[in-house]
Predict the structure.
Amino acid sequence: MSEDQKPSAFGKLNLKDATNKVNAEALRQFTIEAEDDQALEQSVGGSESPSGKRKKKEAAAAAALAAVSGEAAGPEQGETEEGKASTEDVKVNLVPTPPQTPKDGSRPSSSRKAITPVAAAVGGEEGSTGGSKPAEAADTVVTKEGADKSEYETDSNASVDEATDAPKKLRKKKKKTEGATGEAAAKGELGTGGAVGAAGAAEGEGEVEAVVTAENGKKSAIDEKYPEMLDYNPDDDVDPGPDPNFFYDLEQMYARAKTSSGEGSTPSNFLTLFHSFGYECLKRANLHVLDETHVLFSAGNYIQIFNVDTKKLTYLPTVGGKGIGSIAVHPSRKYFAVGEQGFEPEILIFEYPSLKLYRICRKGTERSYAFLSFSPDGAKLASLGSSPDYMLTIWDWKREKIILRSKAHGQDVFRVTFSTEIEGQLTTGGLGHIKFWKMAATFTGLKLQGELGKYGRTAISDIEGYVELPDGKVLSGSEWGNMLLWDGDLIKCELSSTENKNCHKGQIQEIFLDEGELITAGADGSVKIWDFETIDGADVLEEDAMFPMEPMSEMHVGDGVSIISMCKTVTENNDTNSMWLAQDASGGIWRLDISVSLTKKAPELIQSYHAGPVRGIAPCSYTHMAASMGADGTVRVFDYLRKHTLVRKKYKSGGSCILWPGRNVDSKCVTLIGGFSDGVIRVMTLDYAEQESEYELKISLQHALKPHKGEVTAMIIDDEGKTLVTGSKDDCTLFFFDITSNYLPIGFMKLEAPVTTMAWSNSSKRVLVGLSSGVVLEVECPDSGEVDSSVTYEIQPGSKINRYEFKSIGYKIKKAAHEMVKIKKEEEQQKRLDKIMVDEGEEAYLEEKKAIEDTNSAEEDPVFEPPTVSNQIIKIFPYEDRFYLSLDGTDTGALYECTFNDPLADMPTPPSMRGRWVRLNGEPLRVIDMDTDIEIHEINLMQDGSNVMVGMGDGTIRIHKKLEGSGLQMGPPFTLPAHSSGSVNGIMTSFDTRFLISGGNDGNLFVYKVNHAGVELSLPSPSDSLLKSKVKEEITGPPVDDIDDLKAYSIEEAKQKREHEKMLKTAEDKKIKVRKTIATLRSKFKKLKVVNKDLPKHLTLLANDFSMDPQMGSIIAQEVSDSKDLIRKQLAWNSEKHRIELMKLRKRFKDVVATDRIVLHAVESDHLVSTFRCAKPSEAMQQALDDFHKKLAADSNGAPGSRGSDARRISTMARQIEVSEPKTGLGFVRKNTELDMHGPSAVVGSKGGKKLKDAKANKSLQKAEERKSKRLQRELAWKNLSSRKPSENYEDPQMLAAIEDAKNNMGDFNLKTAKNYKVPESQRQGGTFKRAQLLELRRMIYMTKMNFNERLLALRDRKQKMITEAEDWSGRLDTIQAKLPAGSIMAKPKVPVLLDDELPERAMEYTPESLREFKIRHDEEKKRGPADEGGFGGFGGFGDSPPAPTAAETKAAAPVAKQAAAPAAAAGDKGGEGGTEAEEAELEDLVSTLENENENLEIMMMLHEQECLISQMNEAYKEFDKEVVKLRTAKIELDVELKNGDLRIILLFEELLLLKEFEKRENILQEALSSKLSDRDEMSDKIEELEEKLSSKKLYMEELQENEKILYDSFTEQLGENNKFADYLTKVFKKKIKRVKKAAEMDGDSDESDSDDDFDSSSEEEDDDEDGVEHLDLNICPPGCSQELYDATIVMREKKLDLEEAIQEEKKIIDSLRKEVDALVKKNKVISHGVKCAKNDLEAFQLEKQKKMNELDIVVTLNLDQIQYMQNGVLPSDLVSCLVFHSAGVNQLASRIKELQQEKAHQIRKFKELKKSHIHLIKGKKGMQEKLLGLDEKCQNMMLLKFGREVDLKKLENISTNRIAEELKETIAKKDVKYSRKLNEWDVQINQAKQRLLTATRDHTSHLDILNELTKDKQDLESVLDSKQKNLGGEYSGQRKADLKERQRLLQLVQLQAQEIDALKDEIGILSRKDGHILPPTQTAVPPLPPIGGRC
């Protein structure tokens, strides 16, 4: 919370208005606590004089206490101007009383002793206390204008008790205020209660004392009214809450009417509520059951208790007077809570049935309560605030304390409820969200924790209705009508009705869980009952899937009903009850019987009201009846005297205004005129209803007129009752009707802006029209005879309109008021300054003046500018010769007196105006200030003209007494809070002024009884027969058609349409006349052509002669072409539409089919085979399969976390290399140091070592190295052999692999129903795998069908090819048979054709020819009529007649027909050519013998070809038929397989459903196991890594030890034999010293002396040997010992110490690694045990899952020969005990027996062979051991013979020749030569340097000579100057400072030069020696000498 949002401990209190503003709300209690001096000084007003500050502080404290006690003095009590200024904006610290004592009885940590107040009534007259109220119920209360938040208001999620337990400690001081307070009281600054001192507190203990003084010794107001305040004991501050028997005095607290005393005032009881016809049906949860007969709801500012049986109402007023936000009933029904609206509204809790005000909960929200809800036990109350804070507050309502509070959401929140089963759990629902709350106990206290619901893939919805289920889940509704099941903050599933229908059509408003059934009520007016068990266990497989279910029962309440809330009725004995009450958003209260029985009652409408705003009211002019018009389109007539609704009529469009004309329009006064939002005006009459009707009257429609296109905003009728005028907002028109001519339209005028209001001017026949642009028009009403409406109803305004444009002056009024306040303030400041000048002096005056100037300069003057857009006129009120306007915007809150005849007057306004300005034309003459900033919506005079009624925009009603005087003069207002929200849309009085009726935007309609002069009038007795003589008995004539169509034409539009139709009809008549003329001319022309044809040829006219215009033909042809194009364009939309429809049908039904049903027929047999009709697989199925295969491939490549992955191996290998790398900081192995050159490595040697100059030494060294290399090779071979030796627990890897393979592949044939059955890991299946298996099976079935279909299609293609070949063969046969004799012709096989079911795709093909044929057939069938039609007719193929051949068949059959006709034609020709027998004989004679032979040969060839062709055709047909039979057999087999596949799919689906139930648990167990396995793997890796490190460290340790051993051997070898300094050097080598750490290694310039410092702190030397060797200094090489040997010993000692340190360090590392490994091994055992437990849990779960899987039925198709279970050779009837086993498994088991026997024999043989080999190896081992012993003995004997004792061969090898010593000698010789050469070079350089020094000395000496001469000259000059200055003045007699400084400088110069001379002499002496050097001394910089006498 930011600083500016934090609640302040100070509340601004305007003390000047304390008396006027403090009313009954001052019953709230508070404690006043003074701040310290500085804080109070700052709050009072900044920099002031001490006395002024003191006075203001005293006056502030006293006035605050006086204001609280109700005795603050107002201005009329003598308050001075100074007192006003000093107390106007004082801040008073208003601190709430301390919090309650904790439940354990201990005192709060920082409690404050507070003054306990008592409730007191503060108002216009002295009130009595409503009972003592404990301190804990009090909150901070100040006037509403300046109230700040309470000091203890916490942030949105903090415990209030926690926040209030630690109030801020303030430092307090006692103030002596006797004199100042008395003075202030004398000046009238304090109230009648006397002067009151400030409350102070002791600094140490925080106690509060009331320091009270008063003039004349009187007690203060606090002492007199609350004597117990001073006796307050903090130990008694245990807050049990208010007394259970305590009640507030509602009579003193409710929001009564506000009145003022004085001239023209209205009595306080002027209006009293008589009856309410309102009900806020659109408010959520505004219907509650109190008992068997009473229900509770709110209407306006009243709580209404309605008796369902007697229809009586009981009213309770509110306290705030700003409306009611929400109500709730206690579970015990003994209390009900009312949440108000307004600034910081309260929650009122009433007791029922006493209706006493029991408790008040304060400070729960800022503006309004949106919802209230009691907890199931009734101990807590949850309140929900509306905008802007949306605060959720939990109350301990009996103690009036806040328990918890939090901001519910950032948008509108609709409702809050407690969970009925889970304590401390709440749910809120609202705009686009649902939130789940918990009252959680944290270490800082009780907190409200909210969790927002996540919609996921579901669309976001507003949540109106929901219910908490017993298990914690929540079922909510949605906007589209489905139910959402929430589990936690996620949607578990969405519930819908079956057949993809929603549960409700629209928002689900209420959900209840009642007696094990779920009840839903929706905005569609339906109530449905659902099965709770089904919903509670609902679940879906996919996230976006629906869970379909059907309701158990359903009730539709009625058409147009929209249920918002429901509540169950109660019975006397709380028996089972099925009756509910429903709140209808259409304005009704219904009684519903929702029992599931045949005898349940129909829905009953108990009461009906307006749904939404009341747009207008109209009272009857002669009886106590009134009519109202609602925005819901209902017209209601009610008898308010009898409190009864007479009739109700609903129309489709919403209403906007209503009139009840008087007797001047209808003598019976039964006519109503209503205006509606669609622009329709309906004239209605009242009639008596039938006996069976619900109401006494009925409304009949007389006229339905539509003058406007939009809403009718105003209607008026003139005083004579002749003219009806209507205005509209949308089309800006004003319409006039003649009532006397049966509402004949006169005409309309178009105006410049929308019409907002109308009124009759005082001048006759003129209408005042208010426009939204701020313009008022005075329009003269036309008479019906004056307007010509033959063509249009529009009237031109002309000069009949007066125009007045209102100019805004609101900004001027505010500016003038601001200037007046500013001037008054300046005058008061000047008076105060003058008084300070007189009383306190000029200093205080200047100080105060400066403070005032600073304050004034800091204040910025507001900017007052005219509005950019004109303000809208809301209401016109004509009075006398003027009219009064109310406007919105900046001019709101006042009435403006205006006139049309206003000359421009540039003169000051009258004194009644606020401020002064120059009034311009268009500005009002006078402003009637209503003292408010709220819009005025209604203003009317009462029927008797005594009072003015004003309806305000905030729902209040004002009554002003009309005073005498010029213009409208009104008295003080009588203000009554009536409507809760919105404006007052209608306010009227009855004909006798005894009742006042008001209707508002909140949908309420109130009837008030008017008490004139405060005296209640007696009411007339109601009469049932009041209307009998007035209402028409019956309406005669035909019923009038209503205008229901919203798009219906208006009167003007209908007029214009009629005129247009009339014009079209005239044009059409003219066209017909012209066509007749043309037809006559055509007839004459035809006759002329006939006459012309009969004339002689020379007189006949040619055709071209008749053509008058040759181009006319081409023009006509072009017109025909254009007409065709136009028709195409006109039909393009329909064509495209049908094409898209066909495409959609094809896509929906054809494209989804992969293969249609194709039947393939055999040729010569009746066999046929068809394809499998299958649909294409969906993309989702294919995608799911691809995803599964990808996942499977990823798993097979290497599961993440597996120990054998490449990444893990690489990382492990890198760690091994890193660990095995030894440390390089020791400088032994890998550092290129001297030890590498001359240390042990040189001793070990190699063949590659450098040769020495001595050949003999080289040869001996080479032999020694060869022997050593051989020995090392033998040691290495032995080490390799030892490393290959297997351990005792070694197992052959091949054997282990074989055992593992046997375990995995041998097979476990335990039954799955066995108790000891373990599900193998490879067979464990989850939901994902099973789903993939299901999809894969579907894919396989699809592929199988498609493969078969492809085979059939290939066979069909073969048939098509065969048919083509058969047609060719048949054509050839026809040709042959035409030439053969008749007796030789063989029967030709029939050519097969493809039938329609073989080519079903031809049904979707069409050509223009086929379409034309279809049209011809269709027309012929139409001509034949229905008698000739068969079947379904029209489209063919469905009747009894055979279908006509298609175009393709006709085309295919054409060649066949031609070929068939060819032989016949040939035969015909042949027959035709035959002549007589003579001619034939003659021809035969002509034929030669050769020709006969050729013909016979040709016939024989054709006969052979005929036989071959027929044989080929028959053979092809038989082959094809065989393929069909084979394919048919394959399909039968496939059918069996596919049926089994379908059964398998069913099984897989059942398994999938089952696995889905177990999936969640399995995932949890699998995750737990995976986690433990990963932990174990990680731990194993760590152990393995540490073991690798440990082994590498051990190897490195061994290497260091080996190097140490080698170093000792090298040292021994270096000493050689018979070395007399061996013991001494050994002591030097073994000496233990304390060395400095290796930090010195970083210094590269360290000398030998620096290196010797390492030995300064040497430890004690070892004891001398027992033989008494002389003590020598171990740090100095002894005389006679080789310096090189000593230095080498020192270097070896350093290396030895390095090795020892490295060994010690490695030992420590190894120990730590061992400890770490041991700890990790223990942890690994624990983790392994956890893995084992997790595996056991998973196996138990798998077994449980397998048991559930075993319960599923599996269908297996078996042949009889597969059943091998026989009983006595007979197949048993019951196969339950049989076991279905795979035949391959049986065969495998049988063969496995033989395999095991063979393996056993093989293993026995192998065991015998291995045993023999083992015995042989043991014998060989013994032989080798004996051989080794013999060799050892032989070696010892040879040593004894050669050396006389056993010797170490390694040492012997090193003794022979000392390679190191020889190499050192050669190195020393080389270095001697090198260094002698360098010494000679340095000698040359020294000689050269001496020569240069000599030259420099000579130069320096010459310079010194010059210096001496200059010094002498200087002395001479100084003596001359001294002599010349002896006679100067006294001030120059002494030495000057400059001379002294110069002299001192020269002395220093001389000394410095002397030092340089000495230094040069020393240097010369040193350089004269051989090895001497000294640095020159540091020279101090000397400033240069100034030039003397111009010499340089």
